[in-house]
Amino acid sequence: MENGTYVARLEEIADLLQVTGANPFRVRAFQKAARVIDGMAEDLDTVLAEGEVTAVDGIGKSIAEDLRQIRERGSCDLLDELRASLPDGITDLLRVQGLGPKKVKALYEELGIGDLDALEARASEGRIAGLKGFGARTEEKILKEVERLRRTAGRTPLAEAWPHAERLLGLLREVSGVERAEIAGSLRRGRETVGDLDFVVASREPGPVMEAFATDGDVEEVVARGDTKTTIRLSGGLSADVRVVPPEVFGATLHHFTGSKEHNVAIRSRALKRGLRVSEWGVFRRDGEDGGDATDGELVACATEEDIFAAVGLPFIPPELREDRGEIGAAEEDRLPELVTLEDIVADLHMHTTASDGRHSVARMAEAARDRGLKRIAITDHSRSLTVANGLDARRLRAQMEEIDAYNAGDPAVRVLKGLEVDILEDGALDMDDDVLAALDWVVGSVHQWMGQDPQTMTERLLRAIGSGFLHALGHPTGRLVGRRDGFTFDVDAVFDACADAGVALEVNASPWRVDLDDRLIQRALERDRLMLTINTDAHSTAELGQMHFGVRMARRGGCPRSRVVNAQDESP
Ligand SMILES: [Zn+2]
Ligand SMILES: [Zn+2]
Asked: 240 and 255, same structural domain?
């Protein structure tokens, strides 16, 4: 079981304890244990197996016992009791932004609200505004939140799905007899949320693959197990499918399960006009009239996706573009964009160090960046008004600039640019002295506070910041958090035009929680010839420098070529 699963269980216990009004010290013990496990480098499974878990600071005897039970059966007695004593819908209520366990407790006790439906009904009746500590604004926010949760129901954020996908893919590739294994579905297309995980495997022996998948340590339930297809539900609720096919039809199956549905429909109808039938089982030549089974007729080459596209007279279309948004026409006319790749990225221009809320020093970040093949990085810690992140004032920033100069003067792993992620304040002013900003190599301007402004105020605020002449990039431009918070709204055209005029690049923030800008906005940005993008990890640790691929995929979904990415150019910055 992954450490993240234990963390989720402990957090659920802490939340539910709070809803039942438990002793705050007890709640804090579970919260602390969750944080400790979250920060652990080792697998908790191993630590538990060796019986040394109480030696870990922050985990006492009774929580150690809970963890052992969770390891064995995915839950523990305490969690079972808590779940049984409260309505099932309470967990959904806890996911409503701005509620939290204390407010959920009040709603449950005062108004008997135990699920989203009841929450929505009472809020529409105006009964929540009257509760102590709530008010009309909270009620309005609750209604918006319920709508957002409904919209995203059943989809898992990329950031949560990816670790499972990566691990299962590794597992499948290790199984004997497997020639190829790939992730398909919306994850392969680079979407920010996924419905479930799809894997396609080429092998002549499906048995061992079915066995490996169904007996994985993170499986909560084997939903269906067949000869060539198995569906599992992982702890945490995400489902995963694996299909095994012979290598000679792998391309057709991979193409089919990569989707999107709309793209597949368009490809199939194109195939029909050419006397072919395309399905997950392969590409077949149709003899004469319509009808017949999916596998009737002569099998056409389809071991690779290139074969599939070639069969319908097209060049290869990258998965990120397969949304039936004009990619087939573009392929037909040979004007598909040459999309930026991870290998094109030579610099990472947004990251944090221990000076603000990052976990590693300038030198450690530089070494890790070199190990990932980068040539340059920009250190962009937070500015002073972001006190929760220990933001830098002018004095501390100047000290860091000297540190970076000294580092570059030595034998640097990569060239380090002196930068800052400066907060764009409520009125659009920048949270740093002009003379210091002018002395920096790279300034990212970001909105982290006052995010609830109306669109007009937000637009004016952004325009003022862009017009300051100090910014090189606009960081995570909409502020969205996938599955948690919608981005704020502003006049996109006005802001993008201003960025193009001022030479300010728009960031595609590669954190899987953000991937901001999204594909649609990237497409809109690219319509302006002079507007550049910059894809950055916003890493808060050396490990997070590995997030770049999420941003690159989102840029590719937006149709972004290398030429439009600032940090894919060999020349500065
Ligand atoms: Zn930021
Ligand atoms: Zn940042």
From this structure: no
Contacts of 244 (CB under 8 A, 6+ apart): 201, 202, 203, 206, 209, 210, 228, 229
One domain, residues 265 and 355: no
Which ligand sits closest to the CA of 348? 2
Number of separate domains in the chain? 4
- Residue ending a domain, among 274, 304, 332, is 332
What does the pLDDT look like over 50-96, one tens digit per residue? Answer: 877 787 888 889 999 999 999 888 889 999 999 999 988 888 888 88
Ligand 1 center–CA 448 separation, angstroms = 6
Using a CB cutoff of 5 Å, list residues around ligand 2, an ion: 421, 538
Strands (E), 94-177: 156-157
One-letter identity of residue 151: R
* Closest ligand relative to 448 C-alpha: 1
Which has more pLDDT, 98 or 442? 442
Percent of the chain whose pLDDT exceeds 70:
98
Domain co-membership, 552 together with 493: yes
Choosing from 151, 181, 200, the residue where a domain stops is 151
- Do 453 and 478 touch, CB atoms closer than 8 A? no
Instruction: Give the Cα separation of 13 and 30 in Å (integer).
Output: 7
Residue 352 in domain: yes
pLDDT the model gives residue 144: 85
**Which residue, 527, 444, 451, 439, is CA-closest to 485?**
451
CATH code of the domain covering residue 183 = 3.30.460.10
- Indicate if 172 and 220 belong to the same structural domain: yes
Measured in angstroms, how far is the CA atom of residue 534 from the centroid of ligand 2? 13
What's the chain's average pLDDT?
93
Query: What digits encode the pLDDT tens for the residues 307-318?
Result: 999 999 999 999
Q: Residue 424 in 3-state DSSP?
A: strand
Instruction: Name residues whose C-beta falls within 8 Å of residue 473's C-beta, 6 or more positions apart in sequence.
Output: 349, 350, 442, 443, 444, 445, 504, 505, 506, 507, 534, 536, 566
Domain that residue 234 falls in: 156-245
Whether 135 has a pLDDT exceeding 90, the answer reads no
In this structure, is residue 573 part of a structural domain?
Answer: no
Distance from Cα 477 to the centre of ligand 2, integer Å? 12
267 & 176 share domain: no
What contacts 543, CB < 8 A, 6 or more positions away?
A: none
In this prediction, residue 290 carries a pLDDT of: 56
Q: How far is the CA of 425 from the centre of ligand 1 (A)?
A: 13
Q: Give distance in angstroms: CA of 77 to centre of ligand 2.
A: 40
- CA–centroid distance, residue 412 to ligand 1 (Å): 26
Whole-number Å distance between alpha carbons of 28 and 175: 42
| pLDDT reported for residue 91 | 83
pLDDT mean over 331-345: 97
Q: For residue 351, how far is its CA from the centre of ligand 2 (angstroms)?
A: 6
Say whether pLDDT at 501 is over 60: yes
CA of 268 to the centre of ligand 2 (A): 44
| Least trusted range by pLDDT, from 277-291, 373-387, 534-548, 556-570 | 277-291
Q: How far is the CA of 272 from the centre of ligand 2 (A)?
A: 50
Q: How far is the CA of 478 from the centre of ligand 1 (A)?
A: 11
